[in-house]
Specification:
178 residues, alpha/beta, Rossmann fold, five-stranded parallel sheet
């Protein structure tokens, strides 16, 4: 059994990326894993101030929801991120959270496998590449970890437009095989 954290970064109700995250969660649960989904909806996540106090303290000095999220990520074996693609890049809230997780850099961490689930209105193969590269930059800071898999569902723009799409089953299978 693995400890799996799934971070859904979309703030839109009925978002397509959130539905991919839910299917990933279902798959991971069906395989007997301990799974928690963290939605950024309603979370207080402020911008990094660049003070670098976190490098000495092992936590951020900003009192918001980030320290609690980081504690869960540090203890996870698997971390899956789900994001809509905005302007060919990860959502701003995902990038802000990644920046704020700078406090994790000097700490011990358990996660080895990282996954990225993305959705976009555009459906060309290149659409998620910048988001993947951005996440790979974060992963590079944690050399015991790797990008274990990505899943992109293009051609979905409006809320719930992903319903009935084969990529939902792909997300389930990806979660099942973590």
């Amino acid at each position: 059994m693995k400890r799996v954290i799934v971070i859904s970064t979309s703030l839109r109700h009925g978002s397509n990326s959130d539905q991919l995250a839910d299917k990933f969660v279902e798959g991971a649960l069906s395989a007997g894993n301990d799974v928690e989904k963290i939605s950024l909806t309603g979370k207080d996540i402020q911008f990094c101030k660049g003070c670098l106090a976190c490098q000495k303290l092992g936590r951020c000095v900003i009192n918001d929801d980030v320290n609690d999220i980081m504690a869960k990520v540090l203890e996870a074996d698997v971390v899956a991120w789900a994001t809509p693609i905005y302007y060919y890049e990860m959502s701003g809230q995902m990038k802000t959270l990644i920046d704020r997780m700078n406090a994790m850099y000097p700490l011990d961490y358990k996660f080895r496998d990282v996954y990225l689930l993305t959705t976009a209105a555009e459906d060309e193969e290149f659409v998620p590449k910048r988001a993947e590269a951005g996440l790979e930059g974060w992963i590079e800071c944690y050399p015991k970890s790797r990008l274990a898999g990505t899943l992109f569902c293009g051609g979905v723009n409006n809320p719930n437009e992903i319903e009935g799409n084969n990529k939902l089953q792909d997300a389930f299978e990806m979660g099942k095989n973590v």
